[in-house]
Inverse folding.
């Protein structure tokens, strides 16, 4: 078998940490768990990462950054700012990615005691907000949206969507996915001066 390069070994550690984190949650994932998943020793993990915090941050980033890139790519191909927002709502918390949103919840919960996880979740959250803000700015420039403060509007929309999605993922039956979409798009339409139902069309 070909020997792994250092970068490949780091990637293998991150992949193993992600498998464990999806199964057990970020907070419960340990160096020993990751080593067992890889069939190796804990010492190998410590050789490539200074702390478990860094391993977990890298595992979380692998999923969260990929989801961000997929949404950004799909939004960039949209025919208009309105369509880009429709794409945003369709791709932000898809039903088959509850496990990924659960990792976001874990990251937020762990952020206070894990600096690397906090830094990663903060940076990616800012990128999501920036993606939404940029879409709103383009929509205002095109005359499609009416919004005096795109940055604040983006934060309100994102925060509402996160809070509602949390209810679905963490509590299951508190509210439905249909309600999440209806309430979040309705609030967004109000923020952007759109007619009711505009973001559900297309």
């Amino acid at each position: 078998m070909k020997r792994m390069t250092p970068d490949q070994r780091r990637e293998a550690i991150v992949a193993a940490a992600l498998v464990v984190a999806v199964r057990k949650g970020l907070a419960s994932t340990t160096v020993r768990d990751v080593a067992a998943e890889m069939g190796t020793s804990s010492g190998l993990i410590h050789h490539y990462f200074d702390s478990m915090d860094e391993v977990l941050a890298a595992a979380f980033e692998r999923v969260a950054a990929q989801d961000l890139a997929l949404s950004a790519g799909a939004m960039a191909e949209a025919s208009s700012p309105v369509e880009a927002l429709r794409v945003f709502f369709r791709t932000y918390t898809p039903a088959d990615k509850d496990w990924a949103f659960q990792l976001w919840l874990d990251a937020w919960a762990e952020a206070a005691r894990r600096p690397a996880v906090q830094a990663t979740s903060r940076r990616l959250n800012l990128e999501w907000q920036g993606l939404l803000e940029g879409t709103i700015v383009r929509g205002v420039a095109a005359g499609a949206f009416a919004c005096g403060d795109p940055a604040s509007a983006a934060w309100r929309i994102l925060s509402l969507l996160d809070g509602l999605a949390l209810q679905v993922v963490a509590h299951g039956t508190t509210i439905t996915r249909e309600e999440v979409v209806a309430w979040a798009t309705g609030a967004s339409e109000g923020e952007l001066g759109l007619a009711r139902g505009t973001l559900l069309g297309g």
